[in-house]
Design brief:
CATH topology: Na+/H+ antiporter like fold
Largest sheet: none
Number of domains: 1
CATH architecture: Up-down Bundle
Shape: globular
Order of helices and strands: HHHHHHHHHHHHHHH
Strand content: under 5%
Radius of gyration: 21 Å
């Protein structure tokens, strides 16, 4: 009898442990995302007293697929029209939050006595510390995606992801010992501009027209294959241009959200999203190293407090600048890290 591949054994372990842990968390009325992360910690090689995953490289590949499908689903829920309807509010908010969090991170780094370069990178990390995938998953579980503040939060996070692309280019240049010049900045902006133009052109004309022509022969199976094929295709284009695969998947999701088949696509994609999303969040838990947590307990706790407090305060302030209603800013700020 042939031996089972290591990947199948690891997948079995992940899904079994994740299944039991998430049932427990569901019973305790806790977020499933937290259950997945705990399950990942339990099967991690860093956990010496339990069975652990053997081939972490394969799991990372599955996790990369998971984040692609999660952001694809996010795009299906937050279309181009929804983002445009928000107006300038998300732009004002994201610029305010990123600038304030970067300054706060730089200051905290100095208080730790870190070198200037380390402080700059800490500021950049804090500026983009909000996880789009985790917040989207949490909102979905709690049934908050249709709330007004959820649209604002997700729009800000999406713009933050776009801004982080430029930030990472500039920080990597600084880290290599070179001074970032105007050419690199312009190149990054032009790449984003090209991708956004591609986004609108394909979204307004090509894809909707294609789906209208083949609507009569589409069933759930073919719709699933076509949708995921387009998702992966845009992910490939995105990485070729220099962006993340997840960003390309989000773009294709937002394009398909404008089509006549949007509701059907959401339904057929959901089981795939849940499966690979679970693997992604488990892989996040596998990164947790208890020894590092114990060694650096004080700095980690200070950074956690800084991130939560900073995002709450600056998130409220940012939305106040863009929106005169007080209910919206407080809802946005305090949902940020659920």
């Amino acid at each position: 009898m042939s031996e089972l591949p290591v990947l199948v054994k690891d997948l079995a372990l992940i899904l079994v442990v994740a299944g039991f842990v998430t049932l427990l968390f569901k019973k305790l009325k806790q977020p499933l995302v937290l259950g997945y992360i705990v399950a990942g910690f339990l099967v991690s090689p860093h956990m010496p007293y339990t069975m652990s995953v053997i081939d972490e490289a394969d799991i990372k590949t599955w996790a990369d697929i998971g984040i692609i499908f999660l952001l694809f689903s996010l795009g299906l829920d937050f279309s181009v029209k929804k983002i445009l309807k928000m107006g300038a509010s998300p732009i004002i908010a994201v610029c305010t939050i990123v600038f304030c969090m970067m300054t706060l991170g730089f200051t905290v780094g100095h208080l730790f006595g870190w070198k200037q370069m380390d402080c700059i990178f800490l500021g950049g990390m804090l500026a983009i510390s909000s996880s789009t995938t985790i917040i989207y998953k949490a909102f979905s579980e709690m049934g908050l995606l249709q709330q007004a503040f959820a649209s604002t939060v997700m729009s800000v996070l999406i713009l933050e992801d776009i801004l982080s692309i430029i930030m990472m280019v500039m920080l990597s240049t600084v880290a290599s010992g070179n001074s970032p010049d105007g050419g690199q900045f312009i190149e990054s902006v032009l790449k984003i501009g090209f991708f956004l133009v591609l986004w609108f052109v394909i979204g307004l004309f090509a894809i909707p027209s294609l789906l209208r022509k083949v609507r009569g022969i589409l069933n759930n199976e073919t719709l699933l294959i076509v949708s995921l094929g387009l998702c992966c295709f845009m992910a490939v284009i995105s990485t070729t241009v220099g962006f993340s695969a997840g960003f390309g998947a989000f773009v294709m999701g937002s394009i398909l959200a404008e089509t006549i088949e949007a509701e059907k696509i959401i339904k057929v994609v959901e089981p795939i999203k849940n499966l690979f999303g679970a693997i992604f969040f488990v892989s996040v838990g596998m990164l947790v190293n208890l020894q590092i947590l114990v060694t650096y307990t004080v700095p980690i706790l200070l950074l956690v407090v800084t991130i939560i407090g900073g995002q709450a305060v600056f998130g409220t302030m940012a939305i106040c600048l863009a929106d005169n209603r007080l209910k919206m800013p407080f809802a946005v700020a305090f949902q940020w890290h659920k």
